[in-house]
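Section 3.1: Structural characterization of target chains.
Under the original work plan, the team committed to producing a structural model for every single-chain target entering the pipeline before any wet-lab resources were allocated. The record below documents one such target. The sequence was received from the expression subgroup and is listed exactly as submitted; it comprises 590 residues.
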Amino acid sequence: MSETRPDTTTRTCRARRLGRVTVSAALVATAAAGVAFGQGGVATAQPDSAAHVNFTLVWTASFPNDHHPFALSSPDLAQLPGGPALVVGDRSGHVYAVYLKPGRNGGARRAWTVTANGPDGPIGVDSSPSSFDGVVYFGIGWAGQHGGGYEAINVNGSVRWFKDAVNPASDPVRDAGVAAGLTIGSLQSQDALVGPSLGQNTYLFNASSGSKLKGFPWFQADTNFSTAAVADVEGNGQNQIIEGGNTTAGTVFDTTYIDGGQIRILGETGNRGHAARPNSGLYCEYTTDQGVDSSPAVGDIFNGRPGIVVGTSTERAGKTMTDDVIAVNSACRRVWQTSLDGATTSSPALADVLGNGRLQVIEGTQNGYVYCLNSLTGDVHWRTRVPGIVIGGVVTTDLGNGYQDVIVPSTAGAFILDGKTGRIVQTLEHSVGLQNSPLVTDDPNGTIGITVAGYTGSRATQHAVIEHFEVVGSHGSGVTEAGAWPEFHHDAQLTGNANVPVADNLAITTKSLPNAKVGVPYKSGVRASGGASPYAWTMTSGAKPPGLTLSRGGAWSGTPTRRGTYRFTLRVNDGRSTKMTMTLSIAVAS
C-alpha cells in the first residue's frame, strides 16, 4: 500500500463570543512503510538493520463501529475483578474493556462494553480513559459532534455516575463535549477528577460520587483539548492543576484574552466560588500566540526544580509559536522554546532515554519526525523520521539495555526507537493506523506487553482493531521503573507527573478461600499485589463465619462454630490509599 497524504486533522475557529475552537478531525488513512528516512540536519538517525528485541502478537480484536474507529482515545490500564484490562473509546460511541490475558482459545477476552448515548444517539469518545480503584472515567463527545459530558464506570461495566458538560449562561451553545482525558488526583483533601471541556468550563468532581467540588466549574474561556496534569509544582504541599488551552480575543470577567492559548497553573479550589470572577484562582499563566492542544508533562527538569513541557497547535496561521515545544517553570516563566519541523499537537513524554538518570523530552510531529530534547535547555539530542504522521504521544519502556526505548505511534503503524541514538530498531506494526498512544504493561505472565488501538483500511472502509504484543524474554517489572513513560500522560490516573513513580496497579490476587469445618481450627489468608505497601484489609459487607476473624494484614483465623456458606466483600487499602474490593466466600461443613 502506498502512503496516502491525508486531509489532515485540522482545527478551525468559528465566530462567537470568545470564539470557541472546533475540530474537523478526519481520520488519516493508514500509510504503509516505505517513506524516505532522514534529511540531514541535526543528528538524523537511520534505521538499524539488526533489531535487538523480538515481539509476539498475543491476540487481536476487531470491533464494529460504523467506520468511526479508535482515534484520539488512548488505551489505559484498569484493574478489574477478572484481571488487568485495557480500556479505550472509539468515535462510534463505545468504550471497551478487554483483558490483557487471552482466553482459553488464545483470543481476546472482553470484560465489558459501554455505549455513550446522547439525546440523538451514541456520542463518540476521543477522551483517553483514566482508572482509579477499578473505576474507569472518560469524557464523552468530540469536536465533530455537539453535547457530551463526564462518565464513571464501575468494575462490572455499570454506570457509576454521569454529569453533563454545560457552558456558562452567557454562551449561546449550552452543551459541550469532553475530548480531554479526565485526570485523577488528590485535590481538596479527596480523590478528585479534573475535566476540561470543549466549551468554556473546566470541572472538578469527587471521583467516587461525581459531586461537583467548590470553586468549579472554572471559566477556561475557550475550547480545551489538553488533558490536565496534577502535581505540586508550587511546593506548598497541595496539588495544583496544570493545563493548556485556547483563547480568543475579547474581554470577559475583567480579563482580556488574545487570539492564542495558555499554559496555566490553577489552584485546587478553582475560583473559590467567586461568581463575579469565575476565571480567578490562577497561580500564574503563560500566554502563547498559538493554541495549546497538547497535554502538559510535568517533572523536576530544571536542576531538581519542577518544569512544565507542552506542544502547541495549528489553529492560527502565521503565528510564531506554531510547531513549537515550550518549557516553563512553576512561575509560568518560559525557560526555553524549541521550534521543530512540524505540528507539535502530540503530547510530550518525559523519560530517561539516554540512561543518565535525567529526564529528556520526547516529542513527535505531524511531519513524521520524533525528537529527543534536553529538558534543561531544549537542545536537540537526536531526531528520527518514521513513516506516516505522528499525532499520538510517544511512550517508553526499558527493553533490556538499562535505559528507556521509545515506542512511536503513527498513521503508518508503530515503531521502536533506540532511546540513546534514536535509530529505528524494530517495526512493531505496519498495517494499523494510530493517532493515539500505545499502552505498555507488566503482563500477567511477567513479560512486557504493548497494546495498540487503531484502524485499518481506507477512509470508506475503516474499522477498529486492538492488538496486544509481548516482548519475548522480557521482564515486566521494568515497566514501572523510574524514568519510564509507559502510556498516555504517564500513568493510569493521567497525572502527567513524571515525579511520581509508575506503580503497578493494586490488585487482589486471592481468587478463592479454602473450605472450613466446624470445631476445626482454621488458618488462611488473602493477598494483594502492586500498589504500595503496607496493605490493610477490612470487610465492607456480608457475613463472616462465626468464630473466624480477619486481621488487618489479611489473615483469617479461629475455629468455626456454625455450618453454612458465608459470602462477604473485602477491601484492601494500600500505602497510597488506593482501594480494591472483591467478593469471596468460605464454606463451613459440619
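Residues 1-25, 31-50 have pLDDT under 50 and may be disordered.
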